[in-house]
Amino acid sequence: IKIDYNSKNAKTFILNTGSIDGIVPYGNGKYLISDWQGSTHLIAEGKEKIKLTDTTSEEVNAADIDFMSEGKVLLIPTFFANTVAAYKVKIK
To answer: What is the model's pTM?
Structure first.
């Protein structure tokens, strides 16, 4: 949902996000989201979500994520693999 800070009005912002575990702004109204199963997506209002990574078949679960806007680097720590994966994100 999206909540207007001044009016306190809430509205549906993005549908079909799945079971979000992490969410960070990408910029220009876009967000990066992760789910515990191991997928990360790019989402935006009125757009279909775009899968960026998926480690579910390897059973590598994604934890909360971080995004370094300078350099466009997505950081995905894992639960049981005890690693942090770094991806350069290039979106047109």
So the answer is: 0.85
pLDDT along the chain (92 residues), means of 10: 93 83 91 91 90 90 90 91 90 75
On whether the CB atoms of residues 31 and 42 are closer than 8 A, the answer is yes
Contacts of 44 (CB under 8 A, 6+ apart): 14, 28, 29, 30, 31
d(CA 3, CA 65): 23
Label each residue of the chain as H, E or C: CEECCCCCCEECCCCCCCCEEEEEEEECCEEEEEECCCEEEEEECCCCCEEEEECCCCCCCECCCEEECCCCEEEEEECCCCCEEEEECCCC
